[in-house]
UniProtKB/TrEMBL annotation:
It catalyses: L-proline + NADP(+) = (S)-1-pyrroline-5-carboxylate + NADPH + 2 H(+). The keyword Protease does not apply. It comes from Vanderwaltozyma polyspora (strain ATCC 22028 / DSM 70294 / BCRC 21397 / CBS 2163 / NBRC 10782 / NRRL Y-8283 / UCD 57-17) (Kluyveromyces polysporus). GO terms for cellular component: cytosol. Residues 177-278 form the Pyrroline-5-carboxylate reductase dimerisation domain. Residues 5-117 form the Pyrroline-5-carboxylate reductase catalytic N-terminal domain. Keywords: Amino-acid biosynthesis, NADP, Oxidoreductase, Proline biosynthesis. This is Pyrroline-5-carboxylate reductase. NADP(+) binds at residues 8-13, 34.
Length: 284
């Protein structure tokens, strides 16, 4: 019999992770299967939030790994007591409020946190076995990215469980915790920044007379194709960028205007600012 995973706080990001785990491809071995939970209990703060999780799961077919999901609200203590692994997905500013009543029941259990700004040290008062995660909303579709840091007390077998669960969101990367605020900005906030770029490309087409539907399709395909080109060629983006530029042509003309407007430095500063805010969140 597998273990039970408690998800304390299952909002947008929690549901993205839940979806990825629930819909993960069937395990190829018994050892791999044991790293998946037999049961997931999602516990939210109100009935409306709990219903959103129920509706989400009802929209899926049966889990390939036979995972059963329960959604409840206002029962954090009961849920944590039943579980062997705890997933913390509440807003950073309510972590203390939510976790203080659970200290005794969480202690000694693997605590997986996606709470931005909350360090391993700050979470260690609840359990010394902490895996700190930063992922993003594309995780819901299996195209996310997750950056992970572990406390020294997390065992090899527990790390394997974390990897088995979190790698379902997409790319799984382990980094020292000192990089987590930067990862929060780059990975966690990154989709919003990319969507702003996509929106800008789309609206540029509209401004020049391309209909909305076609402009959106073209902009999306340009971004998708460009990413594939970087992945498969292995070349630095700047090298590929200059390969697109013809001397005296349209591309270099457009790039010069974007440089004049500070597009590149604006993106860098925006990600940096998000990182600064991330570092402050856990201190509030």
């Amino acid at each position: 019999m597998g273990y039970t995973l408690a998800m304390i706080g299952c909002g947008v990001m929690g549901q993205a992770v839940l979806s990825a785990i629930y819909n993960a491809p069937k395990a190829e071995s018994l050892e791999e299967k044991t790293r998946f939970p037999a049961k997931i209990i999602a516990s939210n703060y109100d009935e409306e939030s709990a219903k959103l999780v129920t509706d989400l799961i009802n929209g899926f077919s049966e889990s390939p790994n036979g995972i059963v999901v329960e959604s409840t609200w206002g029962k954090n203590e009961e849920v944590v007591e039943e579980a062997q692994v705890i997933f913390l997905g509440v807003k950073p500013f309510v972590v203390n409020e939510v976790m203080e009543p659970l200290i005794e029941k969480v202690s000694g259990k693997l605590l997986i946190s996606i709470c931005a700004g909350w360090t391993i040290e700050s979470l260690s008062k609840y359990s010394n076995q902490v895996s700190r995660i930063m992922t993003n909303t594309p995780a819901k579709y299996g195209y996310g990215c997750a950056v992970v840091s572990h406390s020294p007390q997390v065992s090899i077998s527990q790390k394997q469980i974390v990897k088995q669960l979190i790698s379902q969101v997409g790319k799984y990367v382990e980094l020292p915790e000192k990089n987590m605020d930067a990862a929060t900005a780059l990975v966690g906030s990154g989709p919003a920044f990319v969507l702003l770029m996509l929106e800008s490309l789309m609206e540029s087409g509209i401004k020049m007379g391309i209909p909305l539907k076609e402009s959106k399709e073209c902009a999306m395909k340009v971004m998708e194709g460009t990413i594939k080109m970087v992945e498969e060629s292995g070349q630095h983006p700047s090298v590929l960028k200059h390969q697109v530029c013809t001397p005296g042509g349209t591309t270099i003309a457009g790039l010069c205007v974007m440089e004049d407007k500070g597009v590149k430095s604006g993106i860098i500063r925006g990600v940096e600012e998000a990182s600064i805010v991330s570092a402050k969140l856990g201190k509030k």
